[in-house]
Amino acid sequence: MKSRVCAVFLLLVGSVAAQLGAGTIIHRVRVRVTFANGVCDLSTHVRLMGVSGPMLEGMANDQCFVDFINVPVGTYHLIVSGQNFSNVDAGNVAMDTTGSQEFEVKVKRDNEPEHGAGGLASQLISAADLAVPVKAQKEFDKANELVAKQDLTQAIQRLNKAIEVYPAYAGAYNNLAVIYARQGDRVREREALQKAISINDHFAPAYVNIGRMNITANDFPNAEAALTKASSCDPTDAMTLVLLTYAELMDHHVDQAIATSRKAHSLQGAHAYAHQIAARAYEQKRDAADAITELEQFLKEETTGTRAESARKELAALHAIPTNSVNTAKAQ
Predict the structure, then answer these.
(1) Where in the sequence of the chain do the CATH 2.60.40.10 domains occur?
(2) What is the rounded CA–CA span in Å between residue 238 and residue 235?
(3) Which of 33, 293, 317, 324 is the most buried (most CB within 10 A)?
(4) Contact 92, 3 (CB under 8 A)
(5) What is the β-pairing status of strands 102-107 and 85-95?
(6) Do residues 271 and 242 lie in contact, with contact meaning Cβ atoms separated by under 8 Å?
(7) pTM of the predicted model, to two decimals?
(8) What is the DSSP string of 78-108?
(9) pLDDT band at 125 (very low <50, low <70, confident <90, very high)
């Protein structure tokens, strides 16, 4: 069974302690970061902290997993950081060769309420949702508890019971899709999401999850369509706009990507990754000056980590471009 780390929302302190083992190496340690609305923040960054500072660090993939290779046995502090949430200190995590080497950290963004178990999408209240019978809601809540315990089979059974009681339960179908995604069952994941939006065609979390599925499949046109719909249903969710910015850039809609990144930053909270995406859009337009501006803003908001290192390298390369080349590019 996977080890589940209970996250405490604290600012990162300057001194952390870990007693490291000597010589013994764990081949792979996996950390899964889950968000209250089920949407992975593409800029999520995880650090394993030792006595002298960060020992290992990495960025989450599109499934919000971070894998660490060849980790010395010991006790670490596990720190998660990202856009629109304070650094999450998961406390001491013991890593040895006798137990599971998979850990989960649950994160809540600053602008969203708590929603049951980590990794499950939040519900948008609609007329249909307000009609959910108490019995169906209890099954739904029990499913969330089971997911938190990594009992996905029982969680699916509970969600199906909720649907039996209330067939129009869009949130239950959406959460079924999230569980199927964890199990790697893409067919059932998509079927459940399609059922959710057939019940409620303004249910933003389902469109976001469809968008994420399409990004994973490199189907950027359909990802862009789904995320555009999600944003129209819930225009206050900046992280949806960040995902949309990425899909637009990968779909070669560079002007739209730039415009969407600006929309993301007009909402509450810092979203540094949108600046980095916008910078790459400007680079595709051969507009080095505006790309530099975006990267400099990115580094003001995200000063450390792998992305920051990458941004500094991009900045150095852009600054090396002769001024007349920049001006010529902008004039074209």
Answers:
(1) 3-107
(2) 8
(3) 33
(4) no
(5) unpaired
(6) yes
(7) 0.61
(8) EEEEETTEEEEEEEEEEE-SSS--EEEEEE-
(9) very low
